[in-house]
Amino acid sequence: xxxxxxxxxxxxxxxxxxxxxxxxxxxxxxxxxxxxxxxxxxxxxxxxxxxxxxxxxxxxxxxxxxxxxxxxxxxxxxxxxxxxxxxxxxxxxxxxxxxxxxxxxxxxxxxxxxxxxxxxxxxxxxxxxxxxxxxxxxxxxxxxxxxxxxxxxxxxxxxxxxxxxxxxxxxxxxxxxxxxxxxxxxxxxxxxxxxxxxxxxxxxxxxxxxxxxxx
Length: 215
Fold this sequence. Notes:
alpha+beta
């Protein structure tokens, strides 16, 4: 894909406002984050939900590929501003890890994550969806995402087991367990969605672009 780059051919410094970073962590696991240009230092940082209550905003690892969104630069300026707001509001306590829907997750004024009965937490991929959504850019058509794909339930169950093993509260683990078998937005699909015009991307298109990124 002509909008997917590695740092050897196109460095992070070529990002004008925002890019989406993706990296294969294991055979069946990818990680996703948002690359944004810091207004004060002019450096490129990566905002990502690394794990339960672990929100990061650091210089990106050069092993990540980055995707150049097909989104107007003015809108990407808004996304960068939202990244700064969300980092400022949530960097102390982080954001919990769970499988909740990514729409309307952040307070419009403060950028604080909004907890609630249907807002238990996010994954690395739904965090990216939620940030763009907070900037007025819905990347995907949520209702088009399938439930029960091969491997999704098993992956969610593995995450629940890890949360339990790593010391998440019993209440949180039980709540996340209740979300197992909900739709899973895979990192490569979200990365693929930012290359789609017009937005939001429906599942078949985003999944196809995601497969191309994996290749």
